[in-house]
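HUMAN: I'm a chemist; might I ask for a sequence paired with its structure tokens?

ASSISTANT:
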Amino acid sequence: MDSNLRREIILDNYQHPMHRGLVLDDSYLKTNYNSESCIDNLDLMMKVEDGIIKDIVFDGEACAISTSATSIFIRSLIGKSVSEAKNIIRNYQNMLDEVEYDKELLGELVVYDEISRQPNRMNCALLPSRAITKMIEELEGK
């Protein structure tokens, strides 16, 4: 991916994140996830009906990488089944670990395909996937 396009996508999702703002609705799963190494501290809420992710929202304080990754992740998962979401998360983790992954499946999430070159930013890029995984595990009773 062109570095200018990569930077534009990350910056746009940081400055204008989608699905920002929590809701007052007890039907949403809720979690807080923070980084031990920086200021990232996000609250996420996810609504799942009949195995389909209907909505995800978030709020909190986080760096450009965490905020933009959360915004892109949310758009990537809404409307997907929990199984599809787990597959996207697995492929995202594979990409960050620099092992084989499905680039087409990840869509805009591929903007983080070079994040492993900056190990200090890996936790930032992983924050939304870890938070969503935590909610899915809670949903599945793990």
Remarks:
- DSSP finds five helices and three strands in the chain.
- The first helix runs from residue 3 to 15.
- Residues 29 and 139 are 8 Å apart (CA to CA).
